[in-house]
Amino acid sequence: MVRTVGVAVVGFGWMGRVHTQAYQRVPHHFPQLPVRPELVTVAEEVPGRAEEAAEQFGFPSTTRNWRDVAADPRVHAVSITAPNFLHREIGVAMAEAGKHIWIEKPVGLTAEDARAVADAVAKAGVRGTVGFNYRNAPAVAYARELLASGELGTVTHVRVRLFSDYAAHPDGALTWRYERARGGGGVLGDLASHGVDLARFLLGDIESLAADTAVFIPERARPTGATAGHTLATGGELGPVENEDYVNCLLRFASGARGVLEASRVSVGEQNNYGFEVHGTKGAVFWDYRRMGELGVSRGTSYQDQPVSTVFVGPGHGEYGAFQPGAANAMGYDDLKVIEARNFLRSVAEGTSYGPTLEDAVHSATALDAMSRSAAQGTWVTLG
Ligand SMILES: NC(=O)c1ccc[n+]([C@@H]2O[C@H](COP(=O)([O-])OP(=O)(O)OC[C@H]3O[C@@H](n4cnc5c(N)ncnc54)[C@H](O)[C@@H]3O)[C@@H](O)[C@H]2O)c1
Fold first, then answer.
1. What domains appear along the chain, each with residue ranges and CATH number?
2. pLDDT exceeds cutoff 80 at 236
3. In which region does residue 83 sit, left (phi positive, over 0), alpha (psi from -120 to 50) or beta (all else)?
4. How confident is the model at residue 228, as a pLDDT?
5. Is the pTM of this model over 0.90?
6. Spatial distance between the Cα atoms of 220 and 234, rounded to a whole number of angstroms
7. CB 192 less than 6 A from any atom of ligand 1
8. Which of 9, 12, 14 best tests ligand 1's pocket when mutated (most atoms within 8 Å of CB)?
């Protein structure tokens, strides 16, 4: 029998909306899931925003205070899609209240924050899923499978890139993202967190790293009203950008493989240019998020001049079959979140974790902290 899971969303900006849509779409794509999410309530501090969400998506109740969600017995599972500085407080409180959590990356401001949420989840015996959505792309799942099969030989090195222009406009408002106290790291938490997770997903644990960071737009105008996403602001008082716009990092993996991870939020001309190239002794895989359904694959026995062919993902690659019946029908970002919602709800239903967990968030956050330390000290840092 299908069981109902009451869900709540805390913070209704971009991610709050995407999580809500994912809950609504999950039964369409994964009808065999033994649980059905039922929207119960949405918490949002900006006046009117929760009410608009309720009107549009059908939440039967709203609140300005997320603590009401922790106390609500109708709520079994909570999406935590508020800014980073609230992840620890809300994540720990929800777990202690016995709620399962689907929490956005990077899970707090530091590895210590991520660890606190992970410990609370473990102690409460609830399930925790983290928003490392790029893992869910069927082409990424296929790349992992190919690498694990040994067909591409021993993995030697990876290049992971995450270039974006979301902060390239000098009029981009000084939102929580640019403050240490509310955002933590800059592009480290925003984009490099995804890069670290992808690198670990494909190549295993990172042993040590050496990073360099930079701030290229040192001041921005303070917003005059409520913000969501990447709001522009002109005329407001200027304030300092407190975290990095750019990071470049050398990686050494426990396997002996090497890597380079580069991420920027201020690269004019780059829109969601995320991807990787992984090289093995016999082949390679190439992925670009903007062509999510394609994986470049070089395999064979030639070593030199070995061709690269494009595989269009289809049923049989990751969760593609839940969306389209034949190869080369494009999937989108929101579909990755539907897969994530499925993993979360399946974890809740079965009591076993599917998809990235809070422990993965701790690993990612530990690497990000190490990047900050390495950049400040100018040295390699070994991950504990
Ligand atoms: N997985 C991804 O690809 C991805 C993409 C974007 C953002 N994120 C993560 O999602 C989180 C949210 O990012 P976003 O882009 O949606 O930000 P956003 O600014 O668009 O939304 C955050 C929302 O939280 C609300 N909020 C702030 N304080 C609150 C409180 N005390 N109680 C309730 N609501 C509160 C804000 O008013 C806003 O509506 C961040 O942690 C970010 O790192 C993940």
1. 3-133 (3.40.50.720), 138-325+358-382 (3.30.360.10)
2. no
3. beta
4. 65
5. yes
6. 9
7. no
8. 14
